[in-house]
Every structure is written in C-alpha cells, then in structure tokens.
C-alpha cells in the first residue's frame, strides 16, 4: 500500500487534516473550526486528530512515516514551536506543538508555516511542479506567503520568512494586527475585505442596497467577505470600491514580490480566490501597467490546482522530504 503521512493545516478559521499518500491523495479528511478559546484547546484537538488517525492507520494497515503540520503564525521550524501569531488565532504564542504531541506518538513531527506548506505542495505536486522559482499567496482569514527560490524553500534563519501578506502597500493605511500599517492583508484577506466594508457600511444607501443595509442592521459583527463579494456582484458601489482596492493592494504587493524574487509563477490559494478566475483577469490587467516590464510581464498568475487541501498535503509531504 506504500507509505502515508498525517497532514494537518491550522488556519485562523479552520483546521483541515487527512492521511496523505506520496502522490497527494487525501484519505479520511476532517475539517473542524479552529477553537477560539485557548491554545490548550487547539493542542487537545490536535492530539485527538493525531490519535484517531493513528488508530485508523493501524486498522487499515496504512504505514505511517510522519506527521506534518502547517500552521498560521511565526514558527521556529527547527524547534517545532509557534513563537507568535497575530490575533487571527487567539492565544497563538509560545506553543510547543512538537514537544506536546511527541508525548503521544513516536512518529517524527514536522511543523512549518501554513503558507509554506501550501507552497511545498504546489511545488511538489501542483501548479508549480517542475519550476524552480514560484511564490504562493494564500488568501484566507489572513494572507500567507510561501517562497520557492532556486528550487529551495525560503524560511529565513528560523522559519519566519515569507510573511508576504505583511508587505506594506500604504504607509498611512489601516492598522494591521502584525503591528504595522496598510499591509496587503488589511485590504485583500477575508478579514481585511470585511473590515474595509464595515468601515463604510454607514455610506450605504437603502434605496440602492436594500439587502446590504438590512444585513448591516441585523448582523453588524458577522459581516464576512462572502457578503461583500455578493454585494459587489449585485452592483453595490461601496462593495465595488472595497473589492477594487483589494485587487489593487494585491497587485502592488505582487509587484514587490516579483521585483524581489523574479518568480516565473505566482500561485494563489484560499477562500478568496477559490472559483473566482475573474480576479486573476483583473490582477493581470493591473500588473500589465505596473513595475519593471522585463520582470513583471512573463509572470504567470494561477489559482492553486490542489485547492483547499494544498496546506495539509504540503505539511504531510515534509515526511518524504525528510526521508530523501
Ligand atoms: C497571517 C499570519 C501568517 C499566516 C497568514 C495566513 C498569524 C496567526 N497568521 O498573516 O502567519 O500564514 O495569516 O493564515 O500570525 P490563515 O489564517 O489565513 O490561514
Ligand atoms: Zn501586517
């Protein structure tokens, strides 16, 4: 049956997990909301996921060779520890994930940033296969970055590199929960799009945007990017500006990425781009008039082939990279 690895992807909204084979097939997929209370709740959930997969693997005679975990946050991959995390995940500071889980299993544990594991999956098995220079952006609760340069994963000294969602595109822009201002994430992530719309809800005109106004009155705190996209398609002018600004911010962020890494492809993933090919057309329109042409023009922007599973597949794939 070959070897298998457990893959877990911890994001600000959900935790996705599965047992993965070397070609990236996912078995026994599980998706759970990320516990909002404390890091201990997240750790207990991880322990439960790992224990249940170990019993399933035993029953089904799947030979497990490791556990790979991709998590949002600033991660010391050498120590298997989350150092810090923005408020996208509550209490996500100083979390010794590998130490905690190794009390329950002897399998090797590999921890990395979630967008880095996404990039590993796309590079090994997805849209970046066979390419030496690709950059990935995950557009979900936050915006994560993963970089493959010269065929190598770029992690920096301890694993904190590639926080590409925190490229500043407006020094006077909204405060970001990383501590800076006007990061791409504040405009183009799920939370960024929702926050920019919330700031402008008072401008909505009931005559032209009945559904938006009603929604705001009834659910002011529950607004998500999903509603903003819906209103954009319904012709709401404020939503139109919010989405246009998101595309603009993303395009300027990409120019910095292209000027810095000279990639041949940028792969986008996450809920914001899933099934929204039209976003790529709009980004390409903007990119055609920005930056240094020799660098920018040849870059091909694509949506992830592996989709929602990319993060967990890349996390699991670490077990094979380690065994090479
Ligand atoms: C944030 C940051 C990144 C992460 C990115 C995508 C935290 C908790 N998160 O910029 O480390 O890669 O979000 O995360 O510090 P997601 O929650 O959208 O999957
Ligand atoms: Zn930031």
TrEMBL record:
* The keyword Metal-binding belongs to this UniProt entry's keyword annotation: no
Q: What is its EC number?
A: 2.7.1.2
Taken from the record, one Pfam family name reads ROK
GO terms of molecular function: glucokinase activity
What EC class is this?
Answer: transferase
- Superkingdom of the organism of origin: Bacteria
Q: Gene3D superfamilies in the record, alphabetically?
A: 3.30.420.40
Q: Which UniProt keywords apply?
A: Transferase
Q: Do the record's keywords include Transferase? A: yes
Q: What does the sequence similarity comment in the record state about its family? A: Belongs to the ROK (NagC/XylR) family.
Q: What is this protein called?
A: Glucokinase
């Amino acid at each position: 049956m070959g070897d298998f690895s457990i893959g877990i992807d911890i994001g600000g909204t959900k935790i996705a997990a599965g047992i993965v084979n070397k070609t990236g097939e996912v078995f026994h997929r599980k998706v759970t909301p990320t516990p909002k209370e404390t890091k201990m709740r997240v750790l207990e959930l991880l322990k439960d996921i790992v224990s249940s997969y170990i019993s399933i693997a035993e029953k089904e005679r799947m030979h497990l060779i490791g556990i790979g975990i991709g998590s949002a946050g600033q991660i010391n991959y050498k120590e298997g520890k989350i150092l810090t995390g923005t408020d996208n995940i509550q209490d996500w500071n100083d979390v010794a994930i590998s130490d905690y889980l190794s009390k329950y299993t002897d399998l090797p544990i590999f921890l990395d940033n979630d967008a880095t594991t996404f990039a590993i999956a796309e590079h090994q098995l997805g849209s970046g296969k066979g390419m030496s220079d690709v950059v990935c952006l995950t557009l979900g609760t936050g915006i994560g970055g993963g970089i493959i340069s010269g065929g190598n994963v770029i992690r920096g000294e301890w694993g904190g590199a590639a926080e590409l969602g925190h490229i500043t595109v407006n020094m006077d822009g909204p405060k970001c929960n990383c501590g800076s201002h006007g990061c791409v994430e504040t405009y183009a992530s799920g939370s960024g799009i929702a926050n920019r719309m919330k700031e402008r809800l008072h401008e909505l005109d009931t005559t032209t945007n009945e559904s938006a106004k009603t929604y705001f009155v009834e659910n002011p705190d529950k607004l998500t990017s999903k509603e903003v996209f819906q209103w954009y398609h319904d012709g709401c002018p404020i939503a139109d500006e919010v989405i246009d600004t998101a595309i603009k911010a993303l395009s300027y962020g990409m120019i910095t990425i292209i000027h810095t890494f000279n990639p041949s492809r940028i792969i986008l993933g996450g809920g914001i781009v899933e099934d929204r090919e039209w976003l790529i057309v709009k980004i390409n329109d903007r990119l055609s008039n920005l930056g240094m042409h020799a660098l920018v023009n040849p870059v091909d922007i694509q949506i992830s082939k592996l989709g929602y599973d990319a993060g967990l597949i890349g996390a699991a794939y670490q077990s094979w990279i380690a065994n090479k």
